[in-house]
Specification:
- The structure is a single chain.
- The chain is α/β, with parallel strands linked by helices and 424 residues long.
- It has two domains: 168 residues, 2-enoyl-CoA Hydratase, Chain A, domain 1 (Alpha-Beta Complex), CATH 3.90.226; 231 residues, LarA, N-terminal domain (Rossmann fold, 3-Layer(aba) Sandwich).
- Helices cover 34% and strands 22% of the residues.
- It is built from 15 helices and 18 strands.
- Helix 10 runs parallel beside helix 13.
- The longest helix is centred in the N-terminal third of the chain and has 14 residues.
- The two termini are 21 Å apart.
């Protein structure tokens, strides 16, 4: 039995682990980042796909709403806002006619220091910032209903604007197939009425859906909702595994987005022909391992890769703790109880949806979390296995599955799209 040393991201650093019987690392295809982020964003905006130029769309408009990400979705948002604003100025608009809407979905509101770290002082000082609240009906407007029955309830200021712009990042997503584009509307600036329908069965996929768009109701209903909401223009980034911008796309809600998706697939698709007994996975470091909620995204990929009944060893810092999904798990009698509760009630404000995805994985795999700031006793109360070290976890895996047990390391599990070829 041979051991291979490898590094895996955790927080803002890495840890070195020694892995037995290691299969090829499930790593993305590296594409170098651009040398000038601002210039790449400017290039994309000045060469829109499927729409007139943004300065043309801005002519005669009263108010422009720009939807921006919250802190859990890192991207060059500040640079995007400044370049968009420059185009809007060329179309005759002023800063006072531009508002930014932070797309929290049902996440917590970001603080002003967080906003300044995300977008820079110039953006925060120049523009009015609106904080979306999914639970305040007085701040929401119903814009329509999709033919799938999803009520399109969005932030009031977005509905009242006459120029609607989305910014975001395109990355693999375990429910929507890919993030970005239409997701800035649903769930980004949607009310609970929308989230309840859209994030529950049957619209919600039963299993992890990384890379799945065509025929995916979660994606398709979100796209319909964004059309109803009247999106005029998008600006989206695509990153490599080092969080470096490799390309920006801008223009039409669908055609610009799909061009970005094509590049994203090239980066993040990994072909495998053999499922391992053990998957050692990292969400990809901070902020992807920010808390239990964000770290879960890497479990979706691990579920697709690991043999049924196998072991998933996650490396995640979770500096912000366990959040709402952790509370759900702590209060549950078992993972199965969480699964059954979600099937009975659907999406809830208490992050039952995210707890369900953890519990679903626990029913099929043995899961542990290492290098976390969450106490081991708390992890155990949430039904995770607890080990004093990664060596102890690996030894337990070898005891369970035998000395020939196969191991796969996934350093950027939140975004890897496994492509199965004659998988055994």
């Amino acid at each position: 039995m041979g051991f291979t040393e490898t590094e895996i991201p955790v927080g803002e650093g890495t840890v070195t682990i020694s892995v037995p019987n290691m299969m090829p690392i499930a790593a993305p295809t590296h594409i170098a980042g651009v040398s000038d982020i601002r210039e790449e964003i400017r290039r994309a905006i000045k060469n829109p796909i499927g729409t007139p130029h943004l300065n043309v769309l801005a002519k005669g408009k009263r108010m422009a709403a720009i939807v921006v990400n919250d802190i859990t979705r890192p991207y060059p948002g500040g640079e995007m806002v400044l370049e968009i604003a420059e185009e809007l100025h060329q179309g005759g608009m002023e800063d006072s006619q531009i508002i930014l809407i932070v797309a929290y979905g049902a996440h917590r509101m970001n603080t002003e220091p967080e906003l300044r770290s995300m977008f820079g002082d110039e953006v925060v000082n120049r523009f009015r910032i609106v904080h979306h609240d999914a639970f305040d009906d007085n701040r929401l407007v119903i814009m329509g209903v999709t033919d799938g029955g999803v009520i399109v309830q969005a932030t009031k200021e977005f509905a009242e604007a006459d120029l609607r712009i989305l910014t975001g990042c395109i990355a693999p997503h375990q429910l929507a197939g890919f993030s970005g584009g239409r997701k800035s509307v649903v769930p980004g600036i949607s009310g609970f009425k929308t989230l309840k329908e859209h994030h529950s069965f049957p619209i919600r996929p039963e299993r992890t859906s990384l890379g799945w768009l065509q025929g995916n109701p979660f994606h398709e209903e979100s796209l319909k909702a964004a059309r109803i909401a009247g999106v005029d223009f998008i600006v989206n980034s695509i990153d490599n595994e080092l969080h470096e911008l490799i390309q920006c796309v801008a223009g039409d809600l669908e055609s610009a987005y799909m061009e970005g998706v094509g590049l994203c697939r090239k980066v993040w698709t990994v072909k495998i022909d053999h499922k391992p007994d053990v998957v050692i996975v990292s969400p990809g470091g901070y902020p992807r391992d920010f808390d239990l909620h964000q770290s879960q995204k890497a479990i979706g990929c691990a579920e697709m890769l690991c043999k049924e009944g196998g072991m998933i060893i996650m490396v995640a810092e979770m500096r912000d703790g366990i959040g709402k999904p952790g509370k759900v798990l702590l209060e549950a009698g078992s993972p199965h109880a969480v699964v059954e509760r979600f099937r009975a009630t659907g999406y809830q404000p208490d992050a039952l949806s995210k707890a369900f995805m953890w519990a679903r994985a626990m029913e099929n795999f043995r899961i542990t979390i290492l290098y976390s700031k969450v106490p081991d006793t708390t992890l155990e109360q949430m039904f995770f296995e607890s080990y004093v070290s990664y060596e102890a976890a690996i030894n337990k895996a070898l005891e369970r599955y035998g000395p020939e047990a196969s191991f796969m390391v996934v350093p950027y599990g939140s975004e890897i799209i496994p492509e199965m070829e004659n998988v055994t």
